[in-house]
Design goal:
membrane; mainly alpha; AA/rel_permease1; Amino acid/polyamine transporter I; transmembrane helix; amino acid transmembrane transporter activity
């Protein structure tokens, strides 16, 4: 087999389904929406509505979130059709293997590894900062040496809280999905309850005059704001990683993906509406706009509760992303593109080898490396996956060996998938040059691993459609 034939061979869907049957199907639609909301709604809901209103859109940030949701929905529907048609582990990585071939699948998988692991590492650092501030409220102070990334010049050597929270979540996931989902569902309920608390309490302090002018930056402000807040919706794609553990995946996966987006949009727009009604938008360019608004109306107690909501948001986001990254690495190991032990399932039907591996990497990143400047790399990894999934709908529809008669289908085919691809590519052009250079370096490393190891150890069964 030539190098080209190896790179372009397409995986056999039936082989994937046969191998993934080892997982226990325990997840329902509500669990999937909890996973999705856990990933999508984080600290951003308490920050972005204020900062984008102040700098880009004014009160029109409400419409920015709606426009961004519509844009995101194009990719979400493509994911929903793929998840319904191909309910296999690995999400977009496996879709790429089946539709485009092994090399494109590897590119998508390598991009998603970047997205998931870097996102968790960055959020673990944020959780550490919030938790340290929470402890200070009780007069407890962590030594500076164990409160930050390795930086002797600033007296920090390790971020212990960032490491501990990642391992606590990994331990929770290693015990099984039923118990993990109970905890995750509870944390999601806490998070949503705190968001609703702000919306309800803040509503009584809304001054309609603060919404005038509604579009101080014009219609361009809405579009500019949408480009910024689009990234607040990222994470819904992680729902598709759970496919082999979902009951009735053809129905529940599309419900989980699209339901996540709908709920997130309602929450983002509700917070934006109340926040810009409570405080003139020109005053919202602060680090914590929601807490700032509450303090202005002397609701300091509620402002303190918001910090708990922020920590709950970060916790559930890490749960979803660690879970998804472990299933992704399992799928790549299953195919032999990474060491085979990563594709093992234990007697409890869990891929704990991949879970432990990603936890070690994430905890080292969050505990020792200052990754703040690399956070935007999460976006490029996501958009690459979105692009392939969007355009992949066209060859998917032409595959008569893949049945999806009763499953979800993207409307307005093939126009909507093409629009989704164009929008993803447009958003990629807005990323900074430094992000592109760093991502190129990441993909060069991935290419070396693929050419020297993955391509020669691949055990992907060729699709004989």
């Amino acid at each position: 087999m030539s190098v080209w034939e190896k790179m372009t061979r397409k995986a056999n869907i039936h082989q994937y389904l046969k191998e993934d049957v080892k997982f226990q199907k325990t997840l329902k639609a509500r669990d999937l929406m909890a996973l999705g909301i856990g990933a999508v709604i984080g600290t951003g809901i308490f920050i972005l509505p204020g900062t984008v209103a102040a700098t880009t859109a004014g009160p029109g940030v409400i419409l920015s979130f709606l426009v961004a949701a519509i844009i995101c929905a194009t990719a979400a529907m493509c994911y929903a059709e793929f998840a319904s048609s191909l309910p296999v582990a690995g999400s977009a990585y496996s879709y790429g293997n089946i539709i485009f071939g092994q090399f494109i699948g590897w590119v998508i998988g390598w991009a998603l590894i970047l997205e998931y692991m870097l996102a968790v590492a960055a959020v673990s650092v944020g959780f550490s900062a919030y938790f340290s501030a929470f402890l200070k409220g009780f007069g407890l102070h962590l030594p500076q040496a164990i409160s930050g990334a390795f930086d002797p010049s600033h007296g920090t050597y390790i971020n212990v809280i960032a490491i501990l929270v990642v391992w606590v979540i990994a331990w929770m996931l290693s015990k099984g999905m039923k118990s993990s989902m109970r905890i995750n569902d509870f944390m999601v309920i806490v998070k949503i309850a705190i968001i609703i608390l702000f919306v309800v309490v803040g509503f009584f302090y809304v001054k309609p005059s603060n919404w005038s002018p509604f579009l101080p930056f014009g219609s361009r402000g809405i579009v500019g704001g949408a480009a910024t807040v689009f990234f607040a919706y990222l994470g819904f794609d992680a729902v598709s990683a759970s496919a082999p553990e979902v009951k009735d995946p053809q129905r529940n996966l599309p419900v989980g993906i699209i339901g996540t987006l709908i709920i997130a949009t309602i929450l983002y727009m509700a917070v934006s509406t109340v926040l810009t009604g409570m405080v003139p938008f020109t005053k919202l360019n602060v680090a914590d706009p929601v807490s700032f608004a509450l303090q202005l109306v002397n609701l300091n107690g509620v402002a303190g509760i918001i910090s708990v909501g922020a920590m709950a948001g970060m916790f559930t986001m890490m749960v979803t992303m660690i879970y998804s990254s472990s299933r992704l690495v399992y799928a790549i190991g299953r195919d032999g593109l990474l060491p085979k032990f990563l594709g093992n399932i234990n007697k409890n039907h869990l891929p704990n080898h991949s879970l432990i591996t990603v936890t070690i990497i994430i905890s080292l990143m969050g505990g020792f490396i200052n990754i703040g400047q690399l956070a935007e790399l999460v976006n490029i990894g996501t958009l690459i996956a979105f692009s392939f999934v969007s355009i992949g709908i066209i060859p998917l529809r032409k595959r008569h060996d893949i049945e999806n008669a009763d499953g979800f289908k993207v409307p307005l085919y093939p126009v909507l998938p093409v629009i989704s691809l164009i929008l993803c590519l447009a958003l990629m052009t807005q990323l900074h040059l430094e992000t592109w250079l760093a991502s190129i370096a990441w993909f060069v490393v991935g290419l070396i691993i693929y050419l020297t190891y993955g391509m020669n150890h691949s055990n992907i069964k060729v699709d004989e459609k």
